[in-house]
């Protein structure tokens, strides 16, 4: 059965050869980093530092981060002004391109290598979507990033620890920081907590930080030791 599937997919590749999602160049069959060519992959701007969430102050690799509720360490793989990064996130979030998971994994691997942050005893927590949005999209893009991160770090992923208890408007539809804060207030609750641990919250982008700030605020009432956030891109 499996060999038939491979044969069928090889036939499809012959008729419709896979192309780069960013520049439409033909892809080499043997490449292992998803539907993007190596030229476009190299255009992705990778940060060589992490940041403090409050003011996005750059923290060089090797420095001890501050763990505070209103100023947690933010690990941002890339930046939203990079056109290739923007395209990747848009495809993942709005165009159903879950096939870019190997691309995400490759970028995460490169970024984690640069920042060298000790993540032992952390649990990976993808930011949950509301049930309504999950039904509409069919998957949670943050969970796809979280699973890639887990493959690299071998850390556990929990999708039951942080719960989305309220549906809210997409933050991208709201322009002002205050509107975004109000929109997301009370959106999360804490579900199953097995043990006190360090948490690595994962989302796709960090714009004003309103969504992750609200999640951190909710989690902080439950005595977690250290909380860190990771996104594919920051503003
Ligand atoms: Zn390309």
From TrEMBL:
Signal peptide: none
Superkingdom of the organism of origin: Bacteria
CDD domains: PRTases_typeI (cd06223)
Domain Phosphoribosyltransferase: 149-234
Pfam families tied to this protein: Pribosyltran
Family indicated by similarity: Belongs to the ComF/GntX family.
Identification of the protein by name: Phosphoribosyltransferase domain-containing protein
Organism this protein belongs to: Candidatus Harrisonbacteria bacterium CG10_big_fil_rev_8_21_14_0_10_44_23
């Amino acid at each position: 059965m499996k060999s038939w599937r491979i044969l069928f997919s090889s036939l499809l590749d012959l008729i419709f050869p896979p192309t780069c999602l960013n520049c439409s160049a033909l892809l080499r069959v043997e490449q292992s980093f998803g539907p993007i060519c190596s030229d476009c992959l190299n255009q992705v701007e990778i940060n060589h530092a992490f940041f403090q969430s409050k003011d996005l102050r750059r923290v060089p690799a090797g420095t001890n981060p501050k763990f505070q509720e209103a100023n947690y360490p933010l690990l941002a793989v890339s930046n939203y002004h990079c056109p290739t990064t923007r395209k990747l996130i848009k495809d993942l979030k709005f165009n159903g391109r879950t096939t870019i998971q190997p691309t995400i994994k490759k970028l995460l691997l490169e970024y984690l290598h640069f920042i060298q942050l000790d993540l032992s005893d952390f649990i990976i927590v993808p930011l949950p979507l509301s049930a309504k949005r999950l039904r509409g999209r069919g998957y949670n893009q943050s969970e796809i990033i979280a699973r890639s991160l887990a493959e690299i770090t071998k850390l556990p992923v929990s999708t039951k620890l942080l719960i989305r208890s309220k549906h809210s408007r997409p933050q991208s539809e709201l322009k002002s920081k205050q509107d975004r804060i109000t929109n997301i207030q009370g959106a999360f609750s804490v579900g199953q907590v097995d043990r006190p641990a360090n948490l690595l919250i994962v989302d796709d982008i960090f714009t004003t930080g309103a969504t992750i700030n609200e999640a951190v605020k909710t989690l902080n009432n439950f005595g977690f030791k250290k909380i860190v956030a990771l996104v594919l891109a920051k503003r």
